[in-house]
């Protein structure tokens, strides 16, 4: 692809010409070693920046900065109240730059500015406030049962955290990783996706303008096989928190396993969205459209397999198709846009490839199925829906990760539950029903980490989020993040003198 050069005078906020690493409080120079990787705006195909990849030496520099800040710096030793004050400064500085961060995210990831500004940016700010509260309210345990001993259990920061994120929601997802890691006194090195380095580079710069000690939050940019691999293999990394695809998750877990590093994996999904005959049709329709098409269809928790009761299937599917055809696809910087472009060209081609796969498998194309014809440039795709022949079809089994809905029709709720569970994934599940026993039956029998009843995409940060089966290992929540990012320590003290063997006396 020949990228078009971007006219910088058009930019609403500055975009760095070269995105580098940010280590120990400063951005590294643009003229260092490392591959140059084009950073493309998916809406216009313009070259908006160049990523200078961090090699193993640069990754070492970042990890050692985090190690130094952990071993000798004030952050792990500060009172939680002092840490909380700084976490709230971080929240504030990020929200003060909300428009700029949303702009960078939209320009780089193609997510509509409305969605980023209304959901991802507030969530990013809240992540820092939430984990500051969680850490400040934490307490230990005391055991007096075994006399004459008092055993107290405290939790200590685990050390240097490698945080690796995907391109589909960089601000929302990686801010959660940073906040949950540092709130408990850790230091970290973040590696964003090589496709979307821009917003997070600015986040880390801004974080470093607060009173946070230098070296606590560092960032390296580059591809997974180079920069990511160097990071997770580094002996001074204590723990790896990863969000991304299932295949990558497997590679990362086995790599980390060689060094006995704990890993948390938030991976892919192919979640069932069960629309029952007892659903409120209008709400189920609105929710199902959001569940598959929001964030340009690129979300792990998408309701991408829509299982609809035969009694309402014709009506529901025809309404779904009509609404899909009216979705405002367009420039993600425009506030009226509902679906923007896919994040990068190869990904768009991969998603479009599933249209052919569906056809070959005998699926019926209900709507969409091609690039959007209105645009000469940009990775725009029509919102697409197919009716599959059976759950064995690849479009029912594989994560497509785009604005691509797959329908199946069922007759009994037990059949719907069985179909939902016939999947290698188990991230989330949706059910639409006004009949409580039906909704509860689905909730209790679908093997997924989160079940949404009559609502799409709601995240409660206090409650666990994560996947069954190949959708991941571990959970995100107040308690789960505390367990993951801290080590437990038991200290035992006798409260009175006690008889002890006197060897050699
Ligand atoms: P990906 O797995 O290709 O890449 C994710 C990150 O891992 C990137 O930063 C990449 O550079 C890095 N990486 C790749 N290979 C690596 C290696 N060998 N060593 C170290 N790092 C490596 O995923 P993606 O395409 O960026 O994101 C899409 C995927 O993420 C989808 O499958 C989606 O479901 C998943 N996802 C899951 C969640 C969740 O919470 N479960 C949230 C968002 C996205």
CATH superfamily of the largest domain: Aldehyde Dehydrogenase, Chain A, domain 1
Q: Please state the CA-atom Rg, rounded to the nearest Å.
A: 24 Å
The hetero compounds bound to this protein are: nicotinamide-adenine-dinucleotide
Biggest beta sheet summary? 7 strands, mixed
Across the major sheet, the strand order is: 16-17-18-15-14-20-21
* CATH architecture label name of the largest domain: 3-Layer(aba) Sandwich
**What is the CATH topology assignment of the largest domain?**
Aldehyde Dehydrogenase, Chain A, domain 1
Indicate the CATH class of the largest domain: Alpha Beta
Task: Summarize model confidence as the mean pLDDT.
Answer: 97
* CA distance, first residue to last residue: 83 Å
Question: Could you explain how this protein is built, in words?
Answer:
This protein has 505 residues and is α/β, with parallel strands linked by helices. It folds into 2 domains: 18-267 and 471-489, Aldehyde Dehydrogenase, Chain A, domain 1 (3-Layer(aba) Sandwich); 272-453, Aldehyde Dehydrogenase, Chain A, domain 2, CATH 3.40.309.10. Helix content is 38%, strand content 20%. It has 15 helices and 24 strands. It has helices spanning 56-71, 80-96, 98-109, 113-136, 170-182, 198-207, 224-233, 246-258, 281-293, 310-326, 345-360, 394-397, 413-421, 436-445, 478-485; strands spanning 4-5, 18-19, 22-23, 26-27, 36-40, 46-52, 141-143, 149-157, 160-164, 187-191, 217-219, 239-243, 263-266, 272-275, 305-309, 364-367, 384-387, 404-410, 425-426, 428-432, 450-453, 468-469, 472-473, 486-494. It has a 7-stranded mixed β-sheet, sandwiched between helices. A 6-stranded mixed β-sheet has the order 11-10-9-12-13-23, sandwiched between helices. Strands 1, 2, 5 and 6 form a 4-stranded mixed β-sheet that branches. A hairpin with a 5-residue loop joins β5 (36-40) and β6. α2 (80-96) runs antiparallel to α4 and α4 runs parallel beside α5. It is globular. It starts with a strand and ends in an 11-residue tail after the last strand. Bound molecules: nicotinamide-adenine-dinucleotide. The site of nicotinamide-adenine-dinucleotide (NAD) has 31 residues, from α7 and α8.
């Amino acid at each position: 692809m020949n990228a078009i050069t971007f006219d910088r005078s058009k930019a609403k906020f500055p975009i760095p010409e070269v995105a580098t690493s940010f280590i120990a409080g400063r951005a590294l120079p643009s003229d260092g070693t490392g591959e140059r990787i084009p950073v493309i705006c998916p809406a216009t195909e313009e070259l908006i920046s160049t990523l200078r990849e961090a090699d193993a030496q640069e990754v070492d520099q970042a990890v050692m900065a985090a190690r130094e800040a952990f071993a000798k710096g004030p952050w792990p030793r500060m009172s939680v109240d002092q840490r909380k004050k700084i976490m709230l400064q971080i929240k504030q500085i990020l929200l003060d730059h909300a428009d700029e961060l949303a702009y960078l995210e939209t320009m780089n990831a193609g997510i509509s500015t409305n969605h980023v500004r209304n959901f991802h940016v507030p969530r990013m700010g809240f992540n820092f406030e939430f984990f500051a509260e969680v850490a400040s309210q934490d307490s230990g345990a005391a055991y007096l049962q075994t006399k004459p001993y008092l055993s107290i259990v405290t939790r200590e920061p685990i050390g240097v955290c490698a945080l690796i994120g995907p391109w589909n929601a960089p601000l929302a997802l990686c801010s959660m990783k940073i906040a949950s890691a540092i709130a408990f006194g850790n230091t970290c090195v973040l590696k964003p996706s090589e496709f979307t380095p821009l917003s997070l580079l600015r986040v880390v710069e801004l974080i470093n303008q607060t009173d946070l000690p230098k070296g606590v939050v560092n960032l390296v940019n580059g591809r997974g096989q180079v920069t990511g691999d160097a990071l997770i293999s580094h002996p001074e990394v204590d723990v790896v928190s990863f969000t991304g695809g299932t295949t990558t998750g497997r590679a990362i877990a086995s790599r980390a396993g060689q060094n006995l590093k704990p890993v948390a994996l938030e991976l892919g999904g192919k979640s069932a969205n069960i629309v029952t005959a007892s659903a409120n049709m209008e709400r189920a329709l609105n929710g199902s459209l959001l569940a598959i098409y929001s964030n340009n269809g690129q979300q792990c928790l998408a309701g991408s397999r829509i299982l609809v009761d035969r009694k309402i299937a014709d009506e529901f599917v025809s309404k779904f198709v009509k609404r899909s055809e009216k979705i405002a696809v367009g420039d993600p910087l425009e506030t009226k846009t509902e679906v923007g472009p896919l994040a990068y060209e190869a990904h768009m081609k991969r998603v479009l490839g599933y249209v052919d796969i569906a056809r070959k498998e005998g699926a019926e194309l209900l709507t969409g199925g091609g690039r959007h014809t209105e645009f000469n440039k940009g990775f725009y795709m029509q919102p697409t829906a197919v009716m599959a022949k059976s759950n064995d079809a690849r479009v029912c089994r594989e994560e497509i990760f785009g604005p691509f809905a797959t329908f199946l029709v069922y007759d009994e709720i037990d059949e719907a539950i069985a179909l939902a569970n016939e999947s290698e994934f188990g991230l989330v599940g949706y059910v639409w029903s006004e009949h409580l026993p039906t909704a509860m039956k689905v909730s209790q029998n679908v093997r997924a980490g989160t079940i949404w009843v009559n609502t799409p995409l709601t995240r409660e940060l206090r409650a666990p989020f994560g996947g069954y089966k190949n959708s991941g290992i571990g959970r995100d929540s107040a308690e789960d993040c505390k367990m993951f990012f801290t080590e437990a320590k038991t200290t035992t003290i006798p409260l009175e003198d006690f008889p002890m063997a006197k060897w050699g006396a």
